[in-house]
Amino acid sequence: MPRRRKRARFEQLTEFERGRIIGLREAGLSYRALASRVQRNSSTVMRVWKQWTDECRTTRKSGSGPRNVTSARDDRHLVRMARTDRTASSRQLAALWSIATGVSLCASSIRRRLLQCGLRARTPLYRIPLTHDHRRLRLQWANQHRDWRADWQHVVFSDESRFNLWYHDGRIRVRRYAGERHLPECIIERHSGRTPGVMVWGAIAYHRRSQLLRIVGNLNSNRYIREVLQPEAVPFLQSLPGAVFQQDNARPHTARIVKSFFAAQQVQLLPWPACSPDMSPIEHVWDVIGRRLARDPRPVASADELWINENVHRANRSSYMAFILEVVGFRVLFPVHIDTFSKGLYSS
């Protein structure tokens, strides 16, 4: 027998539900059978049918129900308070409201008023903290490269990324009934200590990709040259005529010994604004690999197994590099704080 859906108290009937009750009653169903069909109380079904037979009315009387404690002006004031502090919880807003007006209002009423006004609590967008100079440099960099078209086909984008043994990016949701919060199937476990994982380095170009390198331990400038640049990055660049190498401004990338190595190997570097790892298209590749690893039905017991699965998923996405640079890459290269369409920065 299917489980009966739990309803909130004082949930009103919709117009469709009222019409359905009347239609089923006219079809000959008893009150008890009808109440079980629409998952409502028998008294509610009888009241709807009586309103229809006595008054020929299917709508709720205007003005019925308890009066709102707040007026329309109070609701506008509440919206201004919520927009002033976007991260304030409903309990905090209720306390501020009580101090400002002297009227007590519960947190559920605060949430209901804000929902009626179109303010819904959502997951915030996380980003790197940017200063005024960071924004200025990002805009300056975008203006300098706004006319690039075919030039992006010669750029090699590189980056490091870490993939954990237990992957959770905040997108997972659990569908449950009220009161099922502590059921084992509705709980996602997370470890309090550092999660074991694999640090990797990779690079992508138009229709090309480098080998995926595993980095064990902390990466410094000497290891960056010895384990990444010499065996993989430089040969990969030399196989692409006129290649331009892109890397972020992490300390191992900008050390003097690394700059001297690039000069000796005659590697052309793409200037990159500070605090802008989110502008590189390779971040989308890491995201795709992470999602595919999270959807893998086979449980991963060690970092070595995770490394094997990671290489398999990356090999299956060889055609994804050109898609990133062709469809998404041009737009994500530019700062998210710039209207790319109005400034003519988006390449169609």
Automatic annotation (TrEMBL):
It comes from the Eukaryota. One of its GO terms (cellular component) is nucleus. GO terms for biological process: DNA integration; DNA transposition. InterPro entries: Homeodomain-like_sf, IS30-like_HTH, RNaseH_sf, Tc1-like_DDE_dom, Transposase_5, Transposase_Tc1-like. SUPFAM superfamilies: Homeodomain-like. Residues 75-147 form the Transposase Tc1-like domain. GO terms for molecular function: DNA binding. Residues 154-306 form the Tc1-like transposase DDE domain. PANTHER family: SI:DKEY-77F5.3 (PTHR23022:SF135), TRANSPOSABLE ELEMENT-RELATED (PTHR23022). This is Transposable element Tc1 transposase. It comes from Stegodyphus mimosarum.
